Amino acid sequence: MTRDLVYHPDTAARHRIAHGEWMWIESPRGRVKQRARLTAGIDPRVINAEHGWWFPEKPGPEYGVWESNINVLTDNGPPYDPAMGTYALRALLCRVARVESGKYS
Q1: Which domains does the chain have, with CATH numbers?
Q2: Distance (Å, whole) CA 97 – CA 86
């Protein structure tokens, strides 16, 4: 199962991250790792990560979910959206960095 983070090539170059490389995504709540998938079809100021990833090759029952699931970086506390009643899960500030070879934790 892939855990791809969509990333603009120009932004990736500034962070020394190549297509297919593992990268860290960090917020004040923690960090997760996913593979970079580069495309010019995304704004250079934005990354896109899908929720719900895990490592099926790791032992269950959690399968490494806390290592790659982007939801680790969100917060479900208020303020809540007045129309939907949900917390702000659509966008957040983050930092990205290349995972150095052999350093996955």
Answers
A1: 4-98 (2.40.40.20)
A2: 29
**Residue with tokens 């290349």, as numbered in its chain:** 98
**pLDDT per residue as tens digits for the range 47-80:** 988 777 778 888 999 888 888 888 888 877 777 7
What pTM does this model have?
0.77
Q: Look-up: residue for tokens 């100021």?
A: 45
Closest CA to 20 of 37, 5, 3: 37
d(CA 68, CA 70): 6
Quick check: 33 and 67 in contact, CB under 8 A? yes
DSSP code per residue over the chain: ---EEEE-HHHHHHTT--TT-EEEEEETTEEEEEEEEE-TTS-TT--EE-S----TTSPTTTTTHHHH-GGGG---PSPB-TTT--BS-S----EEEEPPTT---
Burial (CB count within 10 angstroms: exposed 0-12, middle 13-18, buried 19+), residue 17: buried
